[in-house]
Amino acid sequence: MGNGESTSFWFDSWSHMGRLAEVAGERGVIDMGISRKMSVANAWRTRRRRRHRNPVLNSIEEVLQEQWQNINDNSDKFL
Prior knowledge:
The chain is mostly helical. Helix content is 44%, strand content 0%. It is globular, with a radius of gyration of 12 Å.
């Protein structure tokens, strides 16, 4: 992944966790507060980290933070 602009947060496999919609489930999508249409870059820019009761959602928060620290200015590449 490059800058996350064209990478779907929920439906593209941009992290080691795979497609996050499958990992978190419908309830997780709601609890995370990230729209189903949001890109990874939009998630980085428009929300702040939360603590969740569900450990899977906390893992997603950690992955999002890690990827934010490793962002680069290149356009996304699809594999």
